[in-house]
């Protein structure tokens, strides 16, 4: 199956919309509308991150059913960038960088969950909330593969985002 | 014919164990309850024996997987090297090239059993103990059994009510294991 063009437009096939809409609604109704103190929002976000963790943990089990064993850590991260990302977001990560010491930076130039949000600065402050779930997914997937990590995300301009994965090694 | 199917979690603790004695128990009717009582001692004994067989296979799984991940120079106990043990149990001569596969091949052969192993990418191990019969099982049949088991496990993982790492208590999974144990 050919990958759909990676454009930001609203012409995405309707079968990809449910996840985006569900996730958008989770953030908007579930988090932004709960007009409470800052602490509460963080609590909700960490809950969402945990939901992502569980999702990733279970998803990777299924996705790896027919693949061979990974050679090393980089091999694992490459799988996350390619097959894993395609399974969730129907596209691959655009850029992967690593310092070969346990830090990986995954850049998505048009992150699906942000692509329907105005690219101006208007919603930039809410941007990171839309990445919590995905951070959890990555962390969960790696955790099931025996790699414990910390995943943080950053947004510079709207549909572009970066995920920083730092592998935690037992000392 | 498979006499024991076991699933072992990440931390090497068994999360599912089913041996033929228990399968027989399940299929027995209430009328047989009395005779069953008499056999209980024997049953517990065989269960223990399977437990022992599976546990002893774990070390070999670890060795194999290690060889698989490094793929190159093997520096360990030479008698445990897959090619060496491959000669001993036979039928797995092609082990060397199968190192990065999830299927790990025949692990050990005890008196009347052969033990086969499989490890998923997520370090979940499956062990199947096969009773030696006059008709030897083909390698492909074993692979099919493991693939079935793995599929069932993936389905189980997708169940939100199953807590990963906890012991398996699922009727659907039970049914698959029953079909594996009776089907071949």
From TrEMBL, chain A:
Coiled-coil spans in chain: none
Top-rank taxon, per record: Eukaryota
Pfam short name (any one): TRAPP
Listed InterPro entries: NO_sig/Golgi_transp_ligand-bd (IPR024096), TRAPP_component (IPR007194), TRAPPC6/Trs33 (IPR037992)
Location of the protein in the cell: Golgi apparatus, cis-Golgi network
Similarity remark: Belongs to the TRAPP small subunits family. BET3 subfamily.
Protein name: Trafficking protein particle complex subunit 6B
Classification lineage: Eukaryota, Metazoa, Ecdysozoa, Arthropoda, Hexapoda
Automatic annotation (TrEMBL), chain B:
SUPFAM superfamilies: SNARE-like
Places the protein is found: Cytoplasm, Perinuclear region
Domain of life: Eukaryota
Keyword 4Fe-4S: no
InterPro entries found in the cross-reference section: Longin-like_dom_sf, Sedlin, TRAPPC2L
UniProt xrefs under Pfam families: Sedlin_N
Keyword terms: ER-Golgi transport, Transport
Primary location recorded for the protein, binned into one broad class: cytoplasm
Presence of the UniProt keyword Transport in the record: yes
Family classification: Belongs to the TRAPP small subunits family. Sedlin subfamily.
Protein name per UniProt: Trafficking protein particle complex subunit 2-like protein
Species of the source: Orchesella dallaii
Taxonomic classification: Eukaryota, Metazoa, Ecdysozoa, Arthropoda, Hexapoda
């Amino acid at each position: 199956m050919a990958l759909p063009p990676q454009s930001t437009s609203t012409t995405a096939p309707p079968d990809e919309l449910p996840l985006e809409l569900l996730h958008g609604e989770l953030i908007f109704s579930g988090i932004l509308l709960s007009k409470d103190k800052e602490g509460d929002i963080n609590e909700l976000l960490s809950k969402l991150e945990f939901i992502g963790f569980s999702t990733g943990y279970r998803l990777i089990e299924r996705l790896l059913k027919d693949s061979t064993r990974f050679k090393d850590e980089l091999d694992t991260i490459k799988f996350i960038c390619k097959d894993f990302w395609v399974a969730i977001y129907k596209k691959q990560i655009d850029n992967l960088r690593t310092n070969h010491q346990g830090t990986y930076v995954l850049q998505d130039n048009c992150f699906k969950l942000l692509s329907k949000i105005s690219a101006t600065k208007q919603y930039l402050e809410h941007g990171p909330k839309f990445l919590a779930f995905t951070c959890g997914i990555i962390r969960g997937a790696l955790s099931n593969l025996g790699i414990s990590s910390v995943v943080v995300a950053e947004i510079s301009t709207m549909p572009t985002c970066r995920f920083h994965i730092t592998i935690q090694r037992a000392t | 014919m498979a006499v024991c199917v076991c699933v072992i979690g990440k931390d090497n603790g068994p999360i599912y164990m089913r041996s033929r004695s228990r399968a027989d128990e399940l299929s027995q009717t209430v009328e047989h309850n009395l005779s069953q009582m008499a056999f209980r001692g024997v049953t517990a004994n065989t269960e223990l024996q399977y437990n022992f067989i599976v546990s002893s296979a774990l070390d070999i799984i670890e060795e194999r997987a290690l060889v698989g991940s490094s793929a190159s120079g093997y520096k360990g106990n030479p008698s445990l090297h897959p090619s060496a043990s491959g000669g001993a149990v036979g039928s797995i001569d092609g082990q060397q090239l199968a190192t990065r596969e999830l299927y790990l091949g025949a692990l050990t052969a005890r008196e009347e059993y052969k033990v086969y192993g499989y490890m998923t990418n997520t370090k979940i191990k499956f062990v199947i103990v096969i009773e030696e019969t006059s008709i030897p099982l083909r390698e492909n049949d074993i692979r099919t059994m493991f693939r079935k088991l793995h599929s069932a496990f993936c389905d189980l993982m997708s169940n939100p009510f199953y807590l990963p790492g906890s012991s398996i208590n699922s009727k659907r999974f039970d049914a698959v294991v029953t079909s594996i144990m009776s089907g071949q």
